[in-house]
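Exercise: predict the fold of this chain.
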Amino acid sequence: MKAEIIAVGTELLLGQVINTNAAFLAEELADLGIEVYYQTVVGDNPQRLAELITEAEQRSELLVLCGGLGPTEDDLTKQVVATHLGRDLVQDQQGLKKMEQHFTFSGRRMTENNLLQTLYISGGTPLANTTGLASGSFITVAQHHYLLLPGPPSELQPMFRLAARPLLTALSPVQERIVSRVLRFYGIGESQLVTELADLIAGQTNPTIAPYAKPNEVTLRLTAKASDESVANQLLQPVIEEILARLGQYYYGEGETTTLAQVVVAQLQAAGQTITAAESLTAGLFQSTLGDVPGVSSVFPGGFVTYSAATKMAFLDIDPQLIEIHGAVSEACAKAMAQQAREKAHTDLAVAFTGVAGPEPLEGKPAGTVWIAVASQQGVRAELCHFNRDRAYIRHSAVMKGLDMVRRQK
């Protein structure tokens, strides 16, 4: 079965909202053995949407429409599809009950236009929305299937997994499984990675190897097609082993959403170690990145943001003469910050950042000059880094390098 994903919303066309739904749906459909050949975006215009549906029917059996199920005048997806199919819209009684309970509980008055959200296409199946109010809809007419989902990812994803996926599974039993593994690398650029794997990439058939450059890291998506997941993983495993044999020093983890911070926190938890940080140019970004990881409180009691020379001296007791002689952007200062932070927070490790975020030079050093130090019971080590691009990228680069230094700390 071939599918087409149609995202509805003028905000998508204007770039005001990123279309993350397409990526989610494409991966989910592939897992069901349904191939997505086209992804399209159309604004909140009934005529253009109707024209697109007609066009999509010429090339796909399954049309997945996301967005336009809300209560406002520009939410017209259900109405346009119903008109196109010559069907009426009818009330989803379970959806209506949930909506009434929602407004009763919140103490707000339910306006008439909210009832539009509880309509679905006659002859089809209403899809429950566990995290929102707009009901979805699934209907088969002749040789085509139409799946209507809400636009917010927080509503679309659970609706697809809980309500739509079982319907599609029954509709199209999987003949072939598509399994992907994502490998993540830090400290190597995409061009170098591709060069190191040139022969594997050139000779790929099944599995396939696709590199992707992301901010301060590179990922490899390996995809195999097989009769079932076990066979697909058997195809993937020797390729992964060969890649890691060549690039293992840069590899930090596997997974679509795995982050370097998650890996570092898990490593610290496994070792029973704690960490703190002293940040100048990153201004708390390292600690904030750690804070994004659930359970980080078991390894991170807190830290220091010492942006100026005065706060370095006041919060960390950095010797004024050290800064006067060596400067704030120096190896000596970075090491002192790490050592003092570790002592004051009573942690096993401490990482310190001092440098020039830009855009102007500081202490005669150009933007992107960064010293990062890691202190432990064994001592303190520091590295001089030269990052480029804009201010935000320099700060993010520093955080990623600091995480990697902690990851490699023995």
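Check your answer against the key: The first strand starts at residue 2 and ends at 8.
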